[in-house]
Predict the 3D structure of the following.
Amino acid sequence: MKKSAIVEKIIGNLSQYSPSQNPATAYAPTNIALVKYWGKRNQELNLPVTSSLSISLADKGAETTLSISSIKQDVFILNGKLVPATSSFHRRLSLYLDLFRPNNLFLDVNIVSTVPIAAGLASSACGFAAMALALDKFFSWQLSSQQLSILARLGSGSASRSLWSGFVEWHAGVREDGMDSYAEPLHEKWPELGVGLMMVSESEKSISSREAMQLTIETSELYKSWPQKVEHDLKTLKQAIQEKNFDLLGKTAESNALAMHATMLSAWPPVSYCFPETIAAMRRVWQARADGLSVYFTQDAGPNLKLLFIDQDAIRQYFPEIEEIRPW
Ligand code: 2P0
């Protein structure tokens, strides 16, 4: 099934909707998964093998403004700079807009991103979520959050989780068309929960997460145990959130991230996003815990760690270099 068929299911006939004559703007935060999305059951529709659960980072995200382009081409401006039409970024976004274009309409897209580009935070998550929200306003589709989560997923899987603040669960779903694969926010809030970015390297990724997850699914023996691990971790994480049990949350998130990286290490050819500095940073976290500090990490498809903690002051002393982010 093609993406365009899903778009038709959700929106219907695109030419029924006229673009706004005024610019439409929307904001979406980026998110960090505490139980990860790793592996697709359908690559075209970005349908995941398992559900996942994230926390949004309120003020790290993308604000996207759409207006009608005066030339026969999409124009993307990212943080004030024109994105070259030959770049893969331009191509990926234009292909996404193709799904929604009525009658050869081209768009001016102005994106202001507060996501630190090199920090290994997902810019595609907030990017496609903000784009789906802005398109909904621009064409007055008046879609539900569930429907918008599905449209954001067609751009990037993790974008399905970026429409809300706080904790968000993306349900894997079982349907072939993915109409039951969307995210929803959890009711629980946890304002004391802190996240810190621990940069160890600004180097470019050697392999995209999209390719790495596919390679893992195709070649890793360990991947066979991943769905079970996720099921268990999701249950535990939800319990930890409900009970505000920080150590249970931290342990579950750290263990889930390490298990995800173990599946990659056991792929062939093997994939590792760790640098020597990443391992050193992990050891510092483990030493801090041995010294009695409640701190845990999670790691995505990059060498940097994200620390999870409650006690800000202690963390500042132990890890003075981290950039703190309040998710709420
Ligand atoms: C996550 N990651 O749950 C996991 C953990 C990376 C590691 O979602 O192919 O950019 O666009 O669906 O969403 C990164 O994958 O992949 C990701 P596509 P996406 O946050």
